[in-house]
């Protein structure tokens, strides 16, 4: 009887510890800005967001709508005490993309979350200028991206297919379903 009781207590404690660990992980992953999440795994099924004007695309981990603003959120599974340059540029690209995808909404900043720290990245003229300069330079150096195959099956399996100008599939392009 005492042995059974001890086993039950041990199982309860183990379950409690596991629950706390799960809650902490969940908290670190979901510490997003307040507002309504309008893009992310569940809302958009991994669809790609695109800036046709600049020819760039991306998949932020989430986008939150708050009033007349939309705020991208990106989670990195590493520790950092300051935002890495590449991650700032990635956020800048999201700003350009979201301003085109969610016209009529402002994109004032984004949230960059590392495991140990969270940073607010402001959407500044300086960052935007760097993004546009980098995209233009890549265009000039390498030219616009071209499809390198004639296989519709590859397009059918491609996450970009509904947004790609060169897809071999015959889509009626419609507004993405997560658009506000
Ligand atoms: S839809 Fe087709 S052409 Fe466009 S990126 Fe995907 S595979 Fe390439």
Percent of residues in β-strands? 15-25%
Order of helices and strands: HEHEEEEHEEHH
In whole angstroms, how far apart are the ends?
60 Å
Shape: globular
Q: Are there runs of 5+ residues with pLDDT below 50, and where?
A: 17-29
Helix tally equals 5
Q: What structural class is derived from the secondary structure elements?
A: alpha+beta
The radius of gyration computed from the alpha-carbon positions, rounded to a whole number of angstroms, is 21 Å
- Going across the biggest sheet, name each strand in turn: 1-4-5-6-7
Largest sheet, in brief, is:
5 strands, mixed
Helix content: 40-55%
Bound compounds, each kind once, are: iron/sulfur cluster
Number of strands: 7
Global mean pLDDT: 81
What are the key terms here?
alpha+beta; 7 strands; two-stranded antiparallel sheet; 5 helices; five-stranded mixed β-sheet; binds iron/sulfur cluster; 180 residues
């Amino acid at each position: 009887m005492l042995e059974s009781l001890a086993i039950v207590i041990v199982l309860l404690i183990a379950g409690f510890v596991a629950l706390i660990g799960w809650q902490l992980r969940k908290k670190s992953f979901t510490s997003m800005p307040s507002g309504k999440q309008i893009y992310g795994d569940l809302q958009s099924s991994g669809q790609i967001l695109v800036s046709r004007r600049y020819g760039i695309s991306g998949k932020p981990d989430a986008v939150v709508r708050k009033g007349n603003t939309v705020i991208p959120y990106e989670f990195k599974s590493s520790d950092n005490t300051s935002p890495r340059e590449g991650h700032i540029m990635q956020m800048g690209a999201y700003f350009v993309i979201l301003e085109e995808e969610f016209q009529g909404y402002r994109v004032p900043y984004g949230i960059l979350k590392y495991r140990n720290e969270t940073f607010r990245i402001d959407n500044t003229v300086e960052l935007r200028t760097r993004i546009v300069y980098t995209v233009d330079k890549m265009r000039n150096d390498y030219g616009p991206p071209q499809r390198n195959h004639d296989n519709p099956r590859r397009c059918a399996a491609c996450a970009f297919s509904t947004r790609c100008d060169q897809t071999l599939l015959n889509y009626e392009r419609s507004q993405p379903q997560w658009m506000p």
